[in-house]
Design brief:
Elements: H1 2-27, E1 37-43, E2 49-55, E3 62-64, E4 71-73, E5 78-83, E6 86-90, E7 95-97, E8 103-105, E9 110-111, E10 123-128, E11 133-138, E12 147-151, E13 154-155, E14 163-164, E15 170-171, E16 186-188, E17 190-192, H2 198-235
Antiparallel strand pairs: 1-2, 3-17, 4-16, 5-6, 5-9, 5-13, 7-8, 10-11, 11-12, 14-15
Helix pairs in contact: 1-2
Amino acid sequence: MREMLLMSMRGARDIVRRQSVNMNNLANVNSDGFRKEISHIQRMPDGTAVRTSSPDFSSGAIRNTGRDLDVAVRGDGWIAIEAPGGESYTRRGDLRVDEFGQLINGAGQKVMGNGGPIVVPPHGKIEIGSDGTVSVLPEGESPNTMAIVDRIRLVNPDEARLERGLDGLFRLPQGELAEEDASLSLVTGALEGSNVNAVESLVKMIDLSRAFESQVRLMKMAKEKQEHLAQVINMK
């Protein structure tokens, strides 16, 4: 009965971890460029098994927005940004120019160019090309006078080496920087959605909740049997 109680407790704890991962995925179902986390069992060198999780790098659906500064990475690859943890990588492409002329995404993270964060001079118009080139129409110039400012730094590191931080951004270990990949391209006027399947995550949430309830019932049953056994022993 003690073993039954311990097994039920371990089972409940494992379900809580899986549910935590699933709930975080569900919370980001509408987060552009989000990569869901997959919970799984990892076998350690000493033979023990631990519950862990890893990112699912499959792409989300791309939707047209018609907004000039919305971009989605076509196929594999990442947009390099400046973040507190150093250069980081994201698929989020809802870009805008802030009050300081910096090109940032919807989270306020600075988009990296050839020599650092991209800074856009005063302009009447801004365009982003499919190769990541950022061009502007300088103030006071004729409509055909577009000037190249910079190029968005697009990279394609080995995904097996990418680590997700607590901020949800991906980085290479020990501050290593990914090389720029000129073969990558962007879909302009579009955004990539999350790769979380809302229906699948909701079904999983219900299944895990039921499984947790079953473990709780087993724990209660084991406790009741243990108490009954103790009473029988005391009667002798």
